[in-house]
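Problem: given the chain below (110 residues), write out its structure.
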Amino acid sequence: MDRKVDDALWKRYSTARDTFNRRRGSHFAELDRERSGVRQSKERLCERAEELSESTDWTATSAEFRKLLADWKAAGRASKDVDDALWRRFKAAQDSFFTARNAATASPRV
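Solution.
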């Protein structure tokens, strides 16, 4: 291959690669910003769930947990490891409340 042709091809390739890398970088930076926002949102949901986990107002708190779960689903996804850790935290608070509610409502009334 002629040196001039080789240089021209290399220049075209290099320009295309640089353009791709810039766009890829901005795409992943945007994903990181979105995931950070989702993380903050889900952390607030976890905090609220933990506050509610000790409640004995069974009806209102059950409705609030349903709303929190809908908000959780609407929030989107954070990175997998963060999302999984936050879900375990949210689910633990939810399970704590519903276990207590089920125990209280299942016990015979005197």
